[in-house]
Amino acid sequence: MAIRIRVINGRTVALCANKTKEMPGDLYLDDNVHHALSTKFGLDWVWEGLLEKSLADPELKAIILESETDPCIVKINDEVIHRKAIKHFGKNTQMGVLQEECAELIQAISKHVNRKIDNVENIMEEIAHVDMLLDTMKLIFDKNKIEAYKREAIERFKSFLESLE
Ligand SMILES: [Mg+2]
Fold first, then answer.
1. Tens digits of per-residue pLDDT, 132-155?
2. Which of the two residues, 92 and 66, has the higher pLDDT score?
3. d(Cα 65, Cα 78) in Å, to the nearest integer?
4. Alpha helix (H) ranges present in the chain?
5. Are 11 and 59 in contact (CB under 8 A)?
6. How far is residue 93 from each of residues 85, 96, 158, 161, measured CA to CA in Å?
7. How many Å apart are CA 58 and CA 125, to the nearest integer?
8. In this structure, are residues 51 and 80 in contact, taking their beta carbons and an 8 Å threshold?
9. Pick the residue with more confidence: 52 or 161?
10. pTM above 0.70, yes or no
11. Residues with CB under 5 A from ligand 1 (ion)
């Protein structure tokens, strides 16, 4: 994702180039430069727990959110929260929370499917809880391996569906 560095109200902010229009004075960083800076930023800041501090600047956050509607900001904020939870409670506790949320989702689906009680809102709520914890798991475990297993499973399922045609 290309980035525009822009000064707004005296503050220097980085904005997603796709979500903003070019303005005079912008410094444009292409994908390669952004990738290089992100990697350096990750190494220097994320693992030292400093990312949270950088995002705790409410004025800067407000300027960015007003200037673009970029879902990556939300994602970064979520990741900070998940990392904080892992650090505070530990990996096993977070896995235990996932167990509980899975159980709640099973119950919600069971009520709807087996007991024929309209429980759609509750199912969606529990899906969101499980989804949130799965994001945490992707920070505990190797997310690339998880993605590879997911691709494998989807390919197997695709073949199965084709065998039915
Ligand atoms: Mg729940």
1. 999 999 999 999 999 999 999 999
2. 92
3. 15
4. 31-44, 51-55, 58-67, 71-89, 91-113, 120-140, 143-164
5. yes
6. 9, 5, 35, 38
7. 29
8. yes
9. 161
10. no
11. 101, 104, 129
- In one-letter notation, the amino acid at residue 45 is W
**What is d(CA 162, CA 87) in angstroms, rounded to the nearest whole number?**
44
Name the DSSP letter for residue 20: S
- Compute, in angstroms, the gap from residue 87 CA to the centroid of ligand 1: 21
pLDDT tens string 20-74 = 888 889 999 998 888 888 777 766 666 566 666 666 677 777 777 777 765 555 6
Separation of alpha carbons 16 and 20, rounded Å: 6
For residue 85, report the distance from its CA to the centre of ligand 1, in Å.
Answer: 16
What number is the average pLDDT over the span 89-97?
A: 97
How far away, in angstroms, is 122 Cα from ligand 1 center? 9
